[in-house]
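# step 3/5: fold
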Amino acid sequence: MKNYVLILSFLLLGFYSCNKEDDAFAPPITAENTFSCKIDGELFVPKDHGGFIPLYGYLIEILEDNSWIITLSNGKNTLYLFIKKINNTGNYEVFASDGDQDFLYNEKTGMEFTDNGNNIEYISLNNSENIEILSYTNGQKLILKFDKIVLGSTTNNASIILTDGKLNINKETLNKDQ
């Protein structure tokens, strides 16, 4: 009987000590080199740095006009943010994206999301809500947030809702400790 109690105890302890990805927590906006948002209510947090054109992690490209291309991935899904010509704090309206994920010729701020598990791409639409730039330093630091942005599928009528988004990036320290 003792053996059954011990085995049952270890099994229960094992179940309760497992870390589920769903149990991840959203980092505070004050934490440097972090991003989080909810996608249809589920938390999306990129994993630590995982390579170029990330298999997972953060990839930041800053263009000459201080436009930021930000790629965020958790290994399953990838979120692309493009913020055109950051020149002050305040609101930057999100417009329709063309779905090409490189943003090099885009004239307006946009977002894209790739659901790799279901092979579905979503793009920002015209009349989306704003991204609020809270703080920035040209070519180095960016802190932003957004409350709600709707992205539409490129293949069907489905959409996803991104809420509670927050990003704090410092290019000088990003991936230095990894």
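# step 4/5: annotate
The longest strand covers residues 141-153.
# step 5/5: archive (pending)
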